[in-house]
Amino acid sequence: MRRLLIVAAGAALLGAVTVPGAASLAASGSAPAAPQAAATQPPGGGGSQNGKDVTVWVHDSQVRFSGSGYKGGRGDGYRPPACWHEPGPDAREYLDQRKRFQKDWLDGATPEERAEWEKRVEEWSGKLDEKGRWWMPAFNAADRASDACRESLTAVWVPDGQAPPPTGITMETLARLARGAMTVPDPQIGLSPGGKSFVNLPTHVWLENMPASERRKSVTASIPGMSATVVANLTKFKIDPGAPATRVRHTPECEAPGQPYTRGAEFTCGAQYLQASIDQPDKVYVLTVTTEWEVSGYGEGAPPGGGDGPDRFFDFSQLENVVVTASIDVPVHEVQSTVERRP
């Protein structure tokens, strides 16, 4: 026997959950698999990401993303929530959606399936005289954990004046989704001397692609009535010269974006190698730069139906900083000198 599919526009009701003070309905269905790599805007989705190591692909969701840090850069693999509930249609809209999308299926349904369908229609119709709305499951398809998470959620009826389900979207949910969607410029390392360096010669290091306009990024995640904005600021970056302390002197941390070399400039950021790299793998030292973007943020509005409850506010300092690294090969040669003896 085929499984009974009861779906809304762009939404699949999966599994079952019991929520105190609210009615819940169980159904079965299917949803798209989480993407393996870069994503395009999914049907029914509120946003997607094309950057590297980005972990947001919202589906069956009203959440929308915007800001200078949304797309076009690189994420760091931060994992936002896997699934949650969002406010959905009222009783009439909900019932009409299901009747519309189930119409063709019913033409070939068995008597048992039709009986199951009629039972559900009767349950949903019982809400038509009530004021309230259904809260619908939404999920982050970029997270493999969403497969199991969304199977635990189904549509939940919440009468007007009652609190949303415990899994209802909050300021924290939006803040973590915005953090997951954050991308920053991939560090482009500048070196002087470029190409190769020499023993005891200071190798200046800076970030080629970090003018002031690129050192602050923000992402806003919003639904009607509420938004959370996450801001990432780059002020410093760290250097790992790829050599033990016996072979190098370096500045572990530099002010961003560092200073490109100019004649006579003070050596303030970089590495001074004390031994040649001839005995290293590929005959180079691998210098790594780590950019750490300090995260802050703020929220506006309130969760739907949440009033002035504790979920209205979120401490954005709980979010992790954005950390992105890049590496470059530094071949270090030794200057050979020839001493001539004259009679």
UniProtKB/TrEMBL annotation:
Region (Disordered) residue spans: 34-53
Keywords, comma-separated and alphabetical: Signal
Segment forming the signal sequence: 1-22
Record protein name field: Secreted protein
Organism of this sequence: Bailinhaonella thermotolerans
